Amino acid sequence: MYVAVKGGERAIDNAHAWLAEERRGDLSVAELSIAQIREQLSLAVNRVMAEGSLFDPDLAALAIKQSRGDLIEAIFLIRAYRTTLPRFGMTRPVETGEMRCDRRISATFKDAPGGQVLGPTFDYTHRLLDFKLAAEGEPVPVPEAEGRAEPTPHITEFLADEDLIQTEPRDDTEPRDITRQPMSYPADRATRAQALTRGDEGFVLSLAYSTQRGYAKNHAFVGELRIGMVDVEMEIPELGFAIDIGEVQLTECETVNQFKGSKTEPPQFTRGYGLVFGQTERKAISMALVDRALRWEELGEDDKGAPAQDEEFVLSHCDNIQATGFLEHIKLPHYVDFQSELELVRKMRREAADAAAAREAAQ
Amino acid sequence: MADETADTERRKAWMSLLAKAPEAELLELWAAYDDAPGFDWLRAPEAGGVMVRGRLGGTGAPFNLGEMTVTRCSLSLADGTVGHAYVQGRSKAKAEAAALIDALMQTGAAADVQGRILAPLGNLVADRASRRAAKAAATKVDFFTMVRGDNA
């Protein structure tokens, strides 16, 4: 028998009132503004935009405030908001070769044209807590030099000129959009890229790390990592031409991997690719490694049974909103489900006890 | 025909500048422009999303990277000139100002609007970009070769 129950409304309202008070914390401490979060916790904002799959720093900052800094909860809020927006269209693919780079490094070519530009990086810091930040202070002026006016060339271009690396031939196939069409397998590389770029940073990082440790090893070098602003251009139907509708910060990682050759083809390096909203380099490098591992079949490599080679495993578990939705639902009332299990266990125990009693009586 | 292409290029440039312009500075310049005309909405400001695309390997097949917020609107001035706006973000005020500027740029007020709004806005955006480029340039590594052990 199914019995519908209702209740808990007052408890829920009171819980949410207390949540709001706890979110605000000690009233003698100044309240955080959205602008403060946007400007001073920008890497958290970037992660929420990347995994929320919506570039809007103010909305991401609001979501972080509302979620009390729980970034997966903030990503959930952004994903939910995203579904309420009418879709105006699709942009032209961004030209990352035209990026206004804040940072651009290569681990493979010391003297790459355009140079090794470190940008505002945590690299080479000593990872010691800086207690000066606990006190108020004016930032020191930042040194400047003659800025580069022309775009910085992609490093893989130089290898491609000598035919030493696989090319990425231009192709205008309309990509599948996983926000509109459900995922199906096998998935093509463009579909995998959409899932990975919005995938959970921790999950994609761990899979990438597993490939470095030997599970589907393909020995990646960071051929290039660049972070900066790119223009976003879209065709406007009422105008009949394209305009820039905005600009976004992106992190792009191109890896140069294990080469392969055959009797007919000379040895050539292969590539992995990562492109993520915001300054998100751990994620972009991870995406490139996982992209490369998932290309095993296309590149004629062996299926080593590694998790990072298993497309369905990777793509169906990389989304932290799907994952947390299913995981957390088990804490919600399952009284009826559990009641039936309880009945079943009681019945089995009764039967076992009866059988034991019958055996004893027979002896 | 050549004129038409040049006109399109000019319009594309100002609409692109308005789309990317920081909201506060654009609205400040617009508020200071005291010849704001009356208008009728053809399409009231509406916020939405567009799907941003990238290319695999930077040059290969396109893929869906994620969405960004955009606000659009269209309006007409009393003389029938139509102005459109597609601007980044969710600000209706920014979209309205951008559409009015787009309309005025197609009228006799173009030189005035260019001088009082678009030129200062363009300079501001260019200055910010060049400050960032200058800071990036200061973090460029200068390598120097150590004396090799085998040269000693």
UniProtKB/TrEMBL annotation, chain A:
<feature type="compositionally biased region" description="Basic and acidic residues">
    <location>
        <begin position="169"/>
        <end position="179"/>
    </location>
</feature>
<dbReference type="GO" id="GO:0016829">
    <property type="term" value="F:lyase activity"/>
</dbReference>
<feature type="region of interest" description="Disordered">
    <location>
        <begin position="169"/>
        <end position="188"/>
    </location>
</feature>
<dbReference type="GO" id="GO:0019634">
    <property type="term" value="P:organic phosphonate metabolic process"/>
</dbReference>
<keyword id="KW-0456">Lyase</keyword>
<protein>
    <submittedName>
        <fullName>Carbon-phosphorus lyase complex subunit PhnI</fullName>
    </submittedName>
</protein>
<dbReference type="InterPro" id="IPR008773">
    <property type="entry name" value="PhnI"/>
</dbReference>
<dbReference type="Pfam" id="PF05861">
    <property type="entry name" value="PhnI"/>
</dbReference>
From TrEMBL, chain B:
<dbReference type="GO" id="GO:0015716">
    <property type="term" value="P:organic phosphonate transport"/>
</dbReference>
<dbReference type="GO" id="GO:0019634">
    <property type="term" value="P:organic phosphonate metabolic process"/>
</dbReference>
<dbReference type="Pfam" id="PF06754">
    <property type="entry name" value="PhnG"/>
</dbReference>
<dbReference type="InterPro" id="IPR009609">
    <property type="entry name" value="Phosphonate_metab_PhnG"/>
</dbReference>
<protein>
    <submittedName>
        <fullName>Phosphonate metabolism protein PhnG</fullName>
    </submittedName>
</protein>
